[in-house]
Amino acid sequence: MKIIIVGVGCVSAKYLPEALRSAGHEPVFVADPAAFTGAARAALETCVCVPADITDAKDVLRALTGRPDVLSGASALTSPFDEVFPVSRQVAGELGLAHPPAVFAELADKARVAELVPEHSPWTVTFDPRDIPAGLAARAPGPVLLKPSLGTGALGVRMLAAAADDDLAGAVRDSGVPGALDQPWLLQQVVTGDLVSLEGMVHDGALSVVGFSRRTRIGATEVANLFPADDTLPAPVRDRCVTAVATLVDRSGLSHGYVHCEFLTTAGRALLIDANAGRVGGAAVVEQIALAHGLLPGEVARHALLLPLAPQTPAPRYLPPQRTRSTTSYWYGLKDGGVVRSVSAPLDTPCLHTRFAVDGQRVPPVGASDYAWVGMLTGPTADADRDVDRIVVTTDDGDRPAFCHPC
Q: Among 222, 85, 53, which residue's Cα sits nearest to residue 153?
């Protein structure tokens, strides 16, 4: 089966081509290998790749219809990114290709998720940035986050105090979000707490928990992830997270697919802030799940991609929580930002290393957004803790240490 995959992350790009081929599938990526580096670029260069703007359905259609060789024999089109599901669903419909169910695109909308499970969500109000109701900001119960309904990586997210409505319009215009004025935006109550993610999969409408992740941020940048973090969370908090996701699955009708549901937990509460339904966790979570459960990363990445298209796909043999091992991933960058020229990671580390920034790319300071990532180091917790401090990033301003923050 030839599968067209709209977009791919740097970590999954290392594994998906070979993992899909080994299962009898021919992958084609809507991606530009030149935007990647290291093992991710090398793996993509073994595949047919079609560059396009994956946030723009018209551009993806243009690129694919201009390649009859790519469309010949293709049977399915999908994406590993939940925010791209609305685009990929539209493109698949135009081309007559199989695609994950409509619920995937529905749950990519943060406003829809808050509407489905309001009892598990922070206070949320949705608005059209072209027609902001008077007095909208005054309705907020204190400080709020302004965020796009479709978006990832904290791009466009701002914390606002008692903002006036004209400030909302300006903040949206200045957000840098592609198509900012063409999608709904949200005001969501600020909740202070720990960022926790439930990693799991749904089969025949039943949720199975693979484990909990616990993330650390500096500002708007996620910089470290502990998995599994189940033992660090009180049982009532874990139970509330499971109840929230199971309720969302039931009310939405999601039948098959992975979930990476993000919560803010505080004082025994767990509030769902992002459903990330239909996909496995991003960044290095695929590697962490695999290492913790004694699997190959390609097994996890392949199953997550294929499950919604072919529910009979055999699942990896996930272990009970008590038999998993602790892993940590550090998502490092530069404290003050800069132009990346090269990265030196220790050759003797047992950890997995992935470059995100290509040579010559300018990255913002850690704290600005997840676009500040230079690379990731993932492995058993003790090894990752030791070896992240041995990474050196060479910039236009000289050598700099990898900047991140321990879990």
A: 222
